[in-house]
Amino acid sequence: MPENTTEPTLYHRWSSVEGQMLRMVLGAKGLHWNDHPCALRDQESAFDLGFAELPVLVHADGQAQQGKLAELAALDARYPDTPALHSSIPAAEWEAFVQWRAGLTALGDRLIASVLPAYEEICSDPEDMAFYRQECERRFQQSIESLANDRYGAYQQLENRGRLRELGKVLAKQRCYTGTLSLIDIVLTADFHLLRLLDGVTIPIDLQYYFQRVAEACDVSLNDGMPRSL
């Protein structure tokens, strides 16, 4: 357990989308937390906390959770004196967003898999890199190189299916998905900001500005955990 038990502690990997979402939610709520990045092959930390996988957020009262959407939404009730990020979203709009996201998750995961080695926890150690390569082949039945070679067609599918250009224009006008910072903005940014690292792929400039805008509102850097500034 963390030394400072008056604040929550986040056990996470930099390359984890759910870990990124937790960091952004905590930042958007103005909460201070103990940041505990874990090694890529560290399974013990999750097991010790009673979970099968990271990230795990341990609250000051000892209760713990992960970063699934329902758990992120529940943080509004746990920290009622902080900005509401989920309860401010109309129920129908949230449900529509969740369904839209579900239709893009598999394709998005394949796209970002080839750029996750930008994180130091993967690229800094040959054994970690070899482990990550094996995980990619297990999950996608393709090597990192094959996934990278497929990026152009896969991105076009994602852009068309998700209507990313139209989305970018709406977000440029509204600044945030619902007009004010919400959990939808955090999920969108965590899911898709790494698309900007795809070599030769240009995502809509409106989305690039939007990702940076959301990160700044959450007081986090989207490059945290990377060995060099991008």
UniProtKB/TrEMBL annotation:
Pfam families: Glutaredoxin2_C. Residues 6-83 form the GST N-terminal domain. GO terms for molecular function: transferase activity. Keywords: Transferase. InterPro entries: Glutaredoxin2_C, Glutathione_S-Trfase_N, Thioredoxin-like_sf. This is Glutathione S-transferase domain protein. It comes from Acidithiobacillus ferrivorans.
